[in-house]
């Protein structure tokens, strides 16, 4: 959120505390018709020309990358933006205003208004390709896969530290538990995989993807620089929605 926009702020006094002096106040510097705005504003997965869409995405990706390189905060607070130069602050607010065009929509509307967020998050990569790439770097020390009743699960007495330890099929298969004393069972009540949870399973029982010794995949935070802004804004948006605060005052910067 940009400074000067605290929730329920409506007095001059609040403005003085949270925003820059009025004469320096940032003015939005893009138009609905700009080639880096229009294709995204009117995005339609079925009819949009993707080369125009990706070109617009690359404009915003570059801004996000530059902000990240300079260490600009993902969420502006009262003071954390003040040490940055005017151009950087202007870029950040432009990105902020731009993302608000999409995040200010009704949260419970149909999916359509949010499709463009997927395109932005993917930063110019086809969305499914991006999703696949992200799933390859998804990492957790514990599996925690949850299954419902009558799912197949495993229990290895050789590896278990407690009698109720259980493993999902994929973790069990990935380890193999060769020569171990194990049982395969239908989980009546459902359950969760304990792979990687060293309170209940010996390290030897983990699959290669879980546990303290598992290899962390290499990832590149620049791949998600727009996602960082979007996810933060969506969380704030969701929180405000829960608080009953309606987003009505900035569907689009008024002077554009
Ligand atoms: Zn085992
Ligand atoms: Zn596992
Ligand atoms: Zn598992």
From TrEMBL:
GO terms for cellular component: cytoplasm; ubiquitin ligase complex. Pfam families: zf-UBR (PF02207). It catalyses: S-ubiquitinyl-[E2 ubiquitin-conjugating enzyme]-L-cysteine + [acceptor protein]-L-lysine = [E2 ubiquitin-conjugating enzyme]-L-cysteine + N(6)-ubiquitinyl-[acceptor protein]-L-lysine. Transmembrane segments: none annotated. Keywords: Metal-binding, Transferase, Ubl conjugation pathway, Zinc, Zinc-finger. Residues 1-25 are annotated as: Disordered. One of its GO terms (biological process) is ubiquitin-dependent protein catabolic process via the N-end rule pathway. Pathway: Protein modification; protein ubiquitination. This is E3 ubiquitin-protein ligase. Ubiquitin ligase protein which is a component of the N-end rule pathway. Recognizes and binds to proteins bearing specific N-terminal residues that are destabilizing according to the N-end rule, leading to their ubiquitination and subsequent degradation. Residues 141-212 form the UBR-type domain. Belongs to the E3 ubiquitin-protein ligase UBR1-like family. InterPro entries: UBR1-like, Znf_UBR. It comes from the Eukaryota. GO terms for molecular function: ubiquitin protein ligase activity; zinc ion binding. A zinc finger (UBR-type) spans 141-212. It comes from Caenorhabditis japonica. Its EC number is 2.3.2.27.
């Amino acid at each position: 959120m940009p400074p000067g926009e605290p929730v329920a702020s409506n007095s001059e006094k609040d403005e003085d505390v949270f925003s820059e002096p009025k004469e320096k106040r940032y003015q939005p510097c893009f138009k609905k018709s700009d080639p880096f705005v229009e294709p995204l504003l009117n995005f339609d997965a079925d009819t949009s020309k993707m080369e125009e869409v990706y070109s617009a995405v690359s404009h915003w990706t570059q801004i996000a990358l530059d902000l990240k390189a300079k260490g600009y905060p993902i969420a502006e607070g009262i003071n954390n933006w003040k040490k940055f130069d005017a151009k950087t602050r202007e870029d950040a607010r432009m990105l902020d205003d731009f993302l608000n065009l999409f995040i200010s929509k009704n949260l419970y509307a149909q999916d359509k208004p949010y499709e463009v967020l997927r395109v932005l998050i993917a930063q110019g990569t086809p969305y499914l390709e991006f999703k696949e790439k992200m799933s390859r770097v998804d990492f957790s020390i514990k599996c925690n896969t949850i299954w419902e009743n009558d799912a197949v699960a495993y229990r290895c007495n050789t590896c278990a530290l407690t009698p109720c330890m259980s493993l999902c099929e994929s973790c069990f298969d990935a380890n193999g538990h060769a020569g171990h004393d194990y049982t395969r069972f239908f989980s009546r009540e459902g359950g969760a995989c304990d792979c990687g949870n060293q309170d209940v399973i010996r390290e030897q029982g983990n699959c290669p993807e879980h546990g303290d010794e598992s290899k962390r995949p290499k990832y590149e935070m620049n791949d998600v620089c727009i996602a960082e802004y979007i996810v933060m804004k969506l969380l704030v948006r969701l929180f405000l929605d829960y608080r009953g605060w309606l987003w009505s005052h900035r569907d689009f910067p008024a002077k554009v």
